Amino acid sequence: DGVTRLDHSSVKQIAGRAGRRNSPFPVGEVTCRDPADMEYLHKCMSTDIQTIRKAGLLPTAGHIQHFSDAIEQYGLGGTDSSNLGSTLDLFGDMAKTRGDFFICRQNEMKGISA
Length: 114
Description:
The protein is mainly alpha-helical. Helices cover 46% and strands 5% of the residues. The protein contains five helices and two strands. Strands 1-2 form a two-stranded parallel sheet. The relative contact order is 0.12.
């Protein structure tokens, strides 16, 4: 299916693991299968990775199910817990995050639930 060129962040992540897992060598080295790619590897390794300013938290289906069960069990929110769209709306209203975190993809989840 071809070869995919990795971005610098992926290259650095893979390089950071090189030589460590189940290896007697404490410091890993990274190289390329094709010597023609060495220049790209050097460029990737010398590129700074942009600092992440915020992180999105994506609730899993299990989180939403647990939340829905709690709504039903404790009678919270005055909504029909069998309606996924209503449950997602209530989850979005009640979910609290702090600092550099946020709940992501709420609109996409609501769109799928319709």
